Amino acid sequence: MKTPPSLQKGDLIAFASPARSIKAEELQTAIQFFEENGYKVKIDSEVNAVFNQFAGDDEKRAQHFQSLLDDPLVKAIVCSRGGYGSLRIVDKLDFSQFEKSPKWIVGYSDITVFHAQLLKLYNAESIHGSMPVNFATNSTEALTGLIACLEGKSPDYFVSQNSMNRAGKACGQLIGGNLSILYSLQGSLSFPDSTGNILFIEDLDEYLYHIDRMVLSLKRGGLFDGIAGLIVGGMTEMKDNTIPFGKTAEEIILEHVDEYDFPVCFGFPAGHIHDNRPLIMGRKTTLEVHPDKKVRMIQQT
Fold first, then answer.
1. Residue 4 counted as domain residue
2. Which of 136, 140, 132, 72 lies closest to 106 in space, CA to CA?
3. Helix (H, G, I), strand (E, B) or coil at 200
4. 63: domain CATH number?
5. Contact of 178 with 110, CB cutoff 8 Å
6. Residues 6 or more apart from 235 whose CB is under 8 A from it?
7. Residue 285 domain-assigned?
8. Which pLDDT value is given to residue 46?
9. Same domain, 125 and 174
10. CA-CA distance, 76 to 78, in Å (whole number)?
11. Does the residue 44 lie in any domain?
12. I need a labelling partner for 16 at 20 to 30 A (CA). Which of 33, 134, 183, 244 fits?
């Protein structure tokens, strides 16, 4: 497993916009945060480019991301926001320089494309964590945790009880991310290997029947067959039809994994939520769901 070097004070962090466009003023909180923590921030004009809903057309977004991958002075790439667009450029990128000198790539939601690509094809860790578009509203724990991960510390979380949790202990690499993106990666070279690993999923603003279809499709494709454990983060702002679907997103997931015996944690503090705690994708992880429904998740180098 390739673990990018830990950041040192004074290192250069670059922002990238591989998906949806973002306004310059939406980056100010993140710039101030990283600078106050002792880092330099690089923001090229491409970060704020606009092409329809994207931050520039596919070629420009790919070229800019490529330049950051290849720049030896850039020690971490923090994606400004998600939305949609990473899938359109990931196959245009050359990761050969990254393989020689890996660096942290940070983001969540649409950035799940990169987490999956880096882990499956390059055996490299990355950080599922908050993005500048959210910094102004994120919890202190989400942001200080992100700095801690960049500086080489491993997450160790205690999670509150959830009545839907299923007890057990699991160890394995952490895989996954946004449910909709995982669904879109089925059949591709980036789709994660699940056997023996711990799967994390989260999502935002989806119809409940979409959640049902995606989870069922992933199940039929074998994603759940060999996993060691399941962590469910925020299932946020779910939508329903006029005639209700009849189950919450969490209940849908629990229904479809009922036949398996791996531990399941619901309500994990990660995803499209205020308290979006960082997770190191690809890292060895231990999930302990106790009989009283309390949870501990530990990541170890």
1. no
2. 132
3. strand
4. 3.40.50.10740
5. yes
6. 202, 203, 211, 248, 249, 250, 253, 271
7. yes
8. 98
9. no
10. 6
11. yes
12. 183
Domain that holds residue 137: 12-150
- 58-80 pLDDT, tens digit per residue, is 999 999 999 999 999 999 999 99
DSSP strands (E only) in the chain? 12-16, 40-42, 74-79, 104-107, 126-128, 156-159, 168-178, 198-204, 229-236, 264-265, 279-281, 284-289, 295-300
The domain tally of the chain equals 2
Which residue, 150, 168, 184, sits at the end of a domain?
150
Contact 282, 193 (CB under 8 A): no
Residues 186 and 283 in one domain: yes
What's the pLDDT score for residue 107?
Answer: 98
Residue where a domain terminates, one of 150, 168, 203: 150
Cα R_g (the chain), whole angstroms: 18
Per-residue model confidence (pLDDT) at position 99:
97
pTM of the model: 0.97
Task: Report the sign of the C-alpha dihedral through residues 63, 69, 75, 79, in that order.
Answer: positive
**What does the pLDDT read at residue 84?**
98
Instruction: From 100, 120, 136, 268, select the one nearest 190 (Cα to Cα).
Output: 120
Residue 24: CB atoms within 10 Å: 11
The verdict on 203 and 252 lying in the same domain is: yes
176 and 111 together in one domain: no
Residue 63 lies in a domain: yes
Helix 249-256 with 208-220: angle, nearest 10 deg: 20
pLDDT of residue 301: 80
DSSP letter string, 230-289: EEEEEEES-B--SS--SS-HHHHHHHHTTT--S-EE-S-S-SSSSS---EEETSEEEEEE
User: Is residue 180 a contact partner of residue 280, using CB atoms and an 8 Å limit?
Assistant: no
Low-confidence ranges of the chain (pLDDT < 50): none
- Say which CATH number the domain at 170 has: 3.50.30.60
Q: 182 and 120, same structural domain?
A: no
CA distances, 182 to each of 46, 57, 217 (Å): 27, 23, 11
* pLDDT the model gives residue 36: 98
